[in-house]
Amino acid sequence: MAALTVSTRTPTNFIIFSAHQASALPSVRRMCDSNKKPETVIRDREKVTDLAKTRFTRGSDVPIVPPDEKERVAELLSANECDTVLGVKIKDADPDSEGISMSTMQFSRRGIAGEISISQKAYLEVYGLRPGANGFELGEEEVKIGRTQECKLTLPLGGISRVHARIYFRNEEYYIQDLGSTNGTYVNGIKVVRCVLRNNDRIDIGEAKIVFIEERVRGV
Amino acid sequence: MSTANQPQVTFWGTRGSIPTPGRTTEKFGGNTPCVSVMYKDTLVIIDAGSGIRNCGLELLSEAAAKGQKQLSLHLLLSHTHWDHIQGLPFFGPAYIKGNKLVIYGSPNKEGFLESILSDQMDTQYFPVEMSTFASDLSIEEMPEDAPLQLGDLSIEWQEQIYHPGGSVRFKISAGGKKIIYASDVELDIMFNSNEKTEETEKHAKEYLEFIDGADLLIADGQYSEEEYKTKAHWGHTSVPVLLEVAYRAGVGHLAFFHHDPLHTDKFLNDLWSQYSTKYHTADPPMHIFWAREGLTMPIG
Ligand SMILES: [Zn+2]
Ligand SMILES: [Zn+2]
Fold this sequence. Notes:
The structure holds two protein chains of two kinds. Chain A is α+β, with helices and mostly antiparallel strands. Chain A contains five helices and 14 strands. In chain A, helix 3 runs antiparallel to helix 4. The radius of gyration of chain B is 19 Å and the shape is globular. Chain B has eight helices and 14 strands. In chain B, helix 3 links the parallel strand 5 and strand 6 (136-141). Residues 79, 81, 163, 167, 184 of chain B line the site of one zinc ion.
């Protein structure tokens, strides 16, 4: 379920992904085997960040992409799932672009994206247990929420039934379903029997406040 | 209170006019009108917009899981504008032998309801004709003198003339709760003081009585106040007028419905932010929300 971070908004000649995931992609392996070997493979996050900076500013202060895209790249680079960031710098560089050139790019964004089924990463931010939010990552398995230990997400808080609700994944969507709880399950303030979950939905279960966060990386 | 013995309402399609798939409508949904009400073992579906396709898929998968061989289904049609019937050819249970499907519409269609529905499956528009429906299908008029009884549900209806071609609103009573479906109507004509006539006043009174004390009112609130200025007499209601009327009638939960195809999730969220606090904190409170595809709520 972890996201493969291929930014579809960054220029086509610069792709960032975690090394672990990259090695599983045939097109990346193909590229690495071909004559157009990447000149450098950088596994160091700092260096890739530097590289991204040069790319996006071309060595001057004037960004060549709108500032919000620059931010997006910085965001991707600092995203936690990219512990090991792999940057690919291609040979035969266009001197203008600090060593990375569109023309030497041997694998396309589309090619890569085609190998990924839509990748989703969803988690719950749970408030009420300790100060701040606790992250709880969701996968494809059902997660029961309630007061008792038998629940994957145990919430020893007021107003919560022993087994209160469940979150399940069906047809690539997450749903929350109340399991006959005493005090009900609320999504954005509305009491629900069941509800498909969307990014930033607020779930209220007794004294717990939960925010559903979903990130989706789409294929082309 | 446990939700098991309460009526449950599911929104399968909430969009007006035309389906609007895409990233900007995924929260409130892009399918055209379809709502279901479940109480004890009786299921009533209202309108057959494109949302009915998902409703059918779920009914079939539930039946398969339970080993249930036959489905007995009731479909109420508010009117026959395309966005309210276009999903019917994609309603899976209708094609399955052994299932029973009764479609109810206004008697004012004067017997044409069947031909209206079968015409949209004419070979020029759709690959298979309505005669391919292998279920036991009957098309009936809503009774005019007494409520329609379906299992433990009782259904009343009234004509709504402030919509091109007219439409029907429904009141479903179940387990002591009242659920109203009143889409496709321009309340502004009845309640906007500039246009008051004896006739509109009479209709306004009828409307208020019909929705009085509803636990849930699912209603047309398609236009923002600003948009309504250029869309008067298009047959849909503006947000502030619906809010005022629903509050006057003592509605518990108000679901804005029949979202404009141009309205993105953000736009609808912003409307909710603009109006919800005022009604939430009112005494008595009225809970308002913009109906969202994929939501099942308990009534009570
Ligand atoms: Zn409509
Ligand atoms: Zn209509």
